């Protein structure tokens, strides 16, 4: 397979090392961190308005976090050796330390917080359901059926503490992914102290956007009225976070253009040619400026509920496209130019291949499947009697 | 104890975590390779494994051990600094069992131009020729003796 | 090199001992090889390189390097006028079959062989998540083929582009400084076949190694010194345009 090269590249650089799966991975973990930060808004910062999204945000984070290692495993040359990262982690390697950050976040933060918040429902369900579902719930209770006032109060305090620890943990989770790129001094497109911060804020933006979309989508599917006060507040936070994210990215860009170091000409050329569509069009215009503009409209003008809902849906979708494009531009863009600054290569993405586009698409849909299972198992909203009967009828 | 009565589920959870950690440590003790950490954060045995890889080029000292006649000619000529296997290819197998592994006969028409074809990027004082003009189709060894290629008064040594 | 009969008398037994080790089923380093006695590097005299590609071919044969990937390669530079910032560089198939004549006869032209710089402060070993690549006690950066996961982080972290993933083993691969040869008293395959003496193996810890004298009397450089990798491949005659 001949890869078209323009100019000169070191011979081993022509083939890209990290594929679309490595683009997908920070996208998925970003959604996790962002969804969690949104959940913590209610829990720690007592933003009452977003309470309807609290449980949904946690379950979304869990669904995406479970799938997140899959693109990594599929990318590895030897996935069967991946456990070595836990056995003999190299402490100087950001990637190794990330394995532990991931594990910490999954078990000590997310799973724990979900369990504590849902414990009362789990105990009730372990007594009211039948069949294999009963077994699952009973296992989840860990054998304790104590749902007295005091125990629930303890749960609430413990959950609050975990969320407080969870916020810096979420920052660490996605900041680390940014650091994995930002600490590579060999690559001037990546190497920057801003990288962890940019990754984190873009993660928050994508996480808030997806929870907003999922909440609106699920309300529509359940024929429930959307709590506009909630969605307006979520959109407001999305807007503010987006402003910060956009400022950071513009800062990086302006700094690069101004200092114009030895890598600048090569990178500039790359952005104007090979990365034009994904960077300038998709990431900046369609994925950042447009959603910020739309959200600004909702903040500045008094719009009808219908109009606001439509804008939120469009802005939310554009945001996700933009953040995915940002990951693409960082990962793929960082490999399209030569470290000699004299040439460019091309990314040949397969379709039906281990690291192909189809695999990426499937991996993107999997978390929604997991989320569907989680929502069925641990309903985020109190079941209304009519709805409960219809789901009971349709489920069996 | 009444204070802890309602936190029973948390203790159970802590127990589950503890069991998990203990299991992990046991598995780790079993799976980490024994020589890991011997010299640094890597498997010490890897060094020996890499050092034991097979050798393909014997090295000119080994060739010179047997082919003293060639050495006599070569050491007096301008190719004295060129290793035998530079032209003849990797011959550790031949040195190992000279009778059964015979080196290939070389085609000087293709071999010599690899170094001596004129090219702007080569150092100016390096002997190079435009082979078309210099010799046309003729093989280089029709005039030059490869082991001592300099020509004196039109006759090669 | 001019070898007298006397030198041969000394060389032959040494060669025989080295060869013995090679014959005895290629065991590990010769028994009297002590890692801490050595600190390996290499000297590249650019002024002598003729771009013949012998080193690239020899390395491929010695180390079973797959086609399309390179543990070492040769680059040709064409610097016109004063334009040191934008040279024209090419490396057709890594220089394995030499170089065709340049399109235009202009400017300053020269060859630069490249390889793993065996960095003492190696950025590639820093990022390996599991300890599959490391700097050996004698200064060679090696990859443990049985432990590497193929995550490719080290390939990204190398500023010199000297690493690749071997498609057969799906693990990271690169120049090992012919570790299996130097530990037996042989020189690297590339140094062995280099016809002009451009490439020379150097032991920075051996006071008798000629590199010490060379470093004292010549100006040398390493590639990308601003990245502070403490590279141990020293270039003599390196032009400012070399990337």
Task: Explain how this protein is built.
The complex is a heterotrimer of chains A (396), B (157) and C (243). By secondary structure, chain A is mainly α. Chain A has a single domain (6-385), classed as Formate dehydrogenase/DMSO reductase fold (Up-down Bundle). Chain A is built from 15 helices and 2 strands. Chain A has helices at 20-43, 54-67, 69-75, 84-87, 94-128, 132-141, 149-182, 194-221, 228-259, 264-272, 276-300, 305-331, 333-336, 357-377, 385-395; strands at 6-7, 343-344. Chain A has a two-stranded antiparallel ribbon. The termini of chain A are far apart. Chain B has 157 residues and is mainly α. Chain B has 10 helices and 2 strands. Chain B has helices spanning 2-5, 8-31, 45-51, 60-66, 68-74, 84-88, 92-96, 108-111, 113-116, 131-135; strands at 151-152, 155-156. Chain B has a two-stranded antiparallel ribbon. In chain B, helix 4 crosses helix 5 (68-74). In chain B, 24% of the residues are buried. Chain C has 243 residues and is α+β, with helices and mostly antiparallel strands. Chain C has 2 domains: 1-32; 34-121 and 175-236, Alpha-Beta Plaits, CATH 3.30.70.20. In chain C, 23% of the residues lie in helices and 20% in strands. Chain C is built from 7 helices and 11 strands. In chain C, the strands form 4 sheets. Chain C has a 4-stranded mixed β-sheet with strand order 9-1-11-10, with no helix packed on it. Chain C has a 3-stranded antiparallel β-sheet with strand order 3-2-4, covered by helices on one side. The radius of gyration of chain C is 19 Å and the shape is globular. Chain C starts with a helix and ends in a 7-residue tail after the last strand. The interface between B and C is large, with 52 and 69 residues.
What best-fitting shape of chain A do the alpha-carbon axes yield? globular
| CATH fold descriptor of the largest domain in chain C | Alpha-Beta Plaits
Strand content of chain A: under 5%
- The number of distinct structural domains of chain A comes to 1
Strand order across the largest sheet of chain C: 9-1-11-10
Pattern of helices and strands of chain C: HEHEEEHEEHEEHHEHEE
Topology order of chain A in helix (H) and strand (E) letters: EHHHHHHHHHHHHHEHH
